[in-house]
Amino acid sequence: MSRSVSDLNGLRMAPAGTPSDTFLAAGAPWFFTMFGRDSLIAARMLLPLGTELAGSTLRALAARQGTTTDSSTAEQPGKILHEVRRATLQFEEGGNGIALPPVYFGTIDATPLWISLLHDAWKSGLPESEVEALLDALEAALVWLRDHGDSDGDGFLEYLDTSGHGLANQGWKDSGDSIRWHDGSLAEGPIALAEVQGYAYEAALGGAALLEAFGRDGAENWRAYAANLSERFRASFWCADDQGAYPAIALDAQKRPVDGVASNMGHLLGTGILNEDEEATVVRRLMDDTMFSGYGIRTVSTTNGGFWPTRYHAGSVWSHDTGIIIHGMMRSGFHTEARALATGLLDAAEGFDWRLPELFSGHSSKEVFPPVPYPASCRPQAWAAASAVPIATALGALNQSKVVTALHLNA
Hints:
Elements: H1 2-10, E1 12-13, E2 23-24, H2 36-45, H3 52-62, E3 83-84, E4 89-93, E5 96-100, E6 103-104, H4 110-123, H5 128-132, H6 135-149, E7 192-193, H7 194-213, H8 219-236, E8 238-241, E9 244-247, E10 250-251, E11 257-258, H9 276-287, E12 317-318, H10 319-332, H11 335-351, E13 359-360, H12 382-386, H13 388-394, H14 400-407
Antiparallel strand pairs: 1-2, 3-6, 4-5, 7-10, 8-9, 10-11, 12-13
Helix pairs in contact: 2-3, 2-4, 3-4, 4-6, 4-7, 6-7, 7-8, 10-11, 10-13, 11-13
């Protein structure tokens, strides 16, 4: 926790014009900038320590919320951005040239995550005046879910880069080879990710609660949206193998469930989109030796044709991925399993001088200690450092007052 607090304080940034709107940069050195998804997830993990960082992160991103439709930047009305840089970011990926403009909106999940952070921060005590100031942005974000996030009207949020130079994959596993069938082959887009449907479900219900509490119209419409999404998800995403049923990683361009067994299903826990039996099924699949390395949850199963322990999104373990799953397990009542994962990440942290890296290898803890490092992993990295909070919570060891003081969250 001490190392994580130090890392988090080192990642603090704020817009030049509004220095009070502090947020956490995604990570150093590659992503030392505003990242919608990363900044939101890290702030949400830190909510048990206070709401100040959540409120300032929400404001910083709302100030840059999309207002128009622009395929070159992936901007759309109501959309929360992906990242901000000083200049165009150019690189090669899989033989394709990527050129991300300085303000880039190519993310499918930042908008529902923004809504859910606003709801959770409100429930955690964010002053009502701060919440009320963000309600117009909330309504715009909700409309984006329905009118833009679901590009083909099938009831699911999906993405497809239409610029020809943006990210091929726009969930948190955003490398070009991350969405795989069980045989290891790559799925073709548009892609509807499993976890994003859980984010959208939770966001719709959280948004409805906020609208109702602050006397705004539309709450019942968003509850109906969530109920419909849950039914569609249950009918479309579930598949099975010789170990039983599980949610597919995604739907592909033909609306087929992409049958890779992956950590994405763990992000559904605690969102409400799964019933109790379905949550138990997901937990069982995640805790199997093919998914749980002993240090954390692998991005894909060892049985996947594309699995390799140090493959970026197809075999490695990401600290925040397991941290989110721990949080979901705690919300869903799977405390024993959450403690096992927390202990695994703590063991991994010991092997890295107590700094949780962005990602590390998916080798079994029975084979290696410490875990094999991923050479290009960010050090420090925001959502990895913030994962110390769900770890400590699951282990019953969170000293709130001490950590709050160290983070200056009440300053």
